[in-house]
Amino acid sequence: MGGEFVLRKPRNGIKCRRFDRCNTMRQTETELFSEETRERRRGRRRRRINGSFFLDMIIFFRPCYFNFLFLSLFLLSSSSFSSTLSSETENFSPRNQTLRPLEELNKLKAINQHLRKINKPSVKTIHSSDGDIIDCVLSHQQPAFDHPRLRGQKPLDPPERPRGHNNRGLRPKSFQLWRMEGETCPEGTVPIRRTKQEDILRANSVSAFGKKLRHFRRDTSSNGHEHAVGYVSGEKYFGAKASINVWAPQVQNQYEFSLSQIWIISGSFGNDLNTIEAGWQVSPELYGDNYPRFFTYWTNDAYQATGCYNLLCSGFVQTNSQVAIGAAISPSSSFKGGQFDITLLIWKDPKHGNWWLEFGSGILVGYWPSFLFTHLREHASMVQYGGEVVNSSPFGAHTSTQMGSGHFAEEGFTKSSYFRNIQVVDWDNNLVPSPNLRVLADHPNCYDIQGGSNKAWGNYFYYGGPGKNPKCP
């Protein structure tokens, strides 16, 4: 049988040949549509729907009545055939298949709308050799001024620096690739790394783009974030400073990152956590490459709804025309070779209460307005310095993503990454050595930390590690 259609001679002697017209069909209608015949045709039709694609084509050579009937069935069976096969391997719905292009279109519309929001009109555009596009945007048009509390305002003047601060930071003339090529943004503008469509497509969603994921792993009680840090707590802190060794650690996949930074923290470690963060990071998901990049971050609700990296939302106000937040840092350190570090200072302006960021020897990058925060409107209750990675490996396995240089702390200078000259700002706006600096590693067999103190480096520590290794499987 195999789905073949068989012509039979009617009982009244009237033959129904291959190319008979419809009047002949009507003469044999009684026999052809008897209950037995209809049941037989239903069975054959069901077999045909699930049968061979090429056997369905035979229908076109049958009488016109059957042509019409089976042409309809052919169109139906063609779609049923493909969906039946795919349903054996996945739960597939033709309705969902129809909606998928519409969903993709809506997603692209949302992405383009977001790009128009964060990519501001520029007075100059710079194409960097590392693939970045730097837009020179008028200061009062940067994303921060989309915030209702800042709309219509202009960046504030520089505040009073902490006492004990000096400008002897070790910094080359330019530390970002786009500047090394001789390009600059005009005064009155700020350099902003342009966000591209593919940057947002790498994120889980438009709303997740530019944000740290609070919870990452579902197969463990860990949220996937691992740290090796030095920290101070138990007092009121109004800022922090450190020189951070810059490396280019290997990251296992685009869903992980490796960073080294300063955290200014207040509130509990629940949903009211306030943080201000700055340092360098390697994040393939955010930037699409493995360059170490200068970054900032903030949140006032433990990385839930508020805050973002860099200038990807309204928040941080940039005041400098020569530093692009999110741009690549160059050079980076090499194993047993040249070492490079960046010096960062974050402190609370005693007059207006805003938190300012300084890079190197006196370069004011910008500030976080005090109204962005709840607890940090007053002071910080903890300061952390150190490294963080995301481990996305499931089922107890560990990532091979490196922290710092990718080598353990005990290997020391030129091999392990470091923080040096670790300081805090006290209640009277004095910059002082961090008192009672303690160190902690979440997973010391994967990433560890060792602290110390001397005259040249003040309070310091070495930290980092390779991630997955025989002691960290």
Fill in the keyword field for this structure:
473 residues, alpha+beta, 2 domains, 7-stranded antiparallel beta sheet, 9 helices, 19% helix, 26% strand, disordered N terminus
Task: Describe the model.
The chain is an alpha+beta fold and 473 residues long. The chain has two domains: 22-87, no CATH class; 111-464, no CATH class. The protein is 19% helix and 26% strand. The chain has nine helices and 19 strands. The protein has helices spanning 22-27, 29-32, 35-50, 53-56, 64-87, 94-118, 177-180, 197-201, 284-287; strands spanning 124-127, 133-138, 189-193, 225-237, 239-245, 258-266, 274-282, 293-299, 308-309, 317-318, 341-348, 355-359, 363-368, 380-390, 417-425, 431-433, 438-441, 448-454, 458-464. The strands form three sheets. Strands 5, 10, 11, 12, 13, 15, 16, 18 and 19 form a nine-stranded antiparallel beta sheet that branches. A seven-stranded antiparallel beta sheet has the order 9-8-7-6-14-4-17, with no helix packed on it. Helix 3 (35-50) crosses helix 5 (64-87). It is globular, with a radius of gyration of 33 Å. The two termini are 60 Å apart. The model is unreliable at 1-33, 45-99 and 215-221 (pLDDT under 50).
